[in-house]
Give the backbone structure.
Amino acid sequence: MYIFKQDIDYKINQTTASKIIGITQPCLSNILNGKVACRKVVAYCITKYLNQDAEIEDYFIKEK
């Protein structure tokens, strides 16, 4: 499971992003606020939405 880093500065339209990523807007909001962890595939989709050249580790911390 992956938790979004809280020191990341991002500006996105969560409604549009959630539709493209394939999750609900409240779910995306909870992930981006660090309230819930997500699976690797979701972390990958969010990462690539934010920056196509980034890696998951740039935006997420892997839970043990």
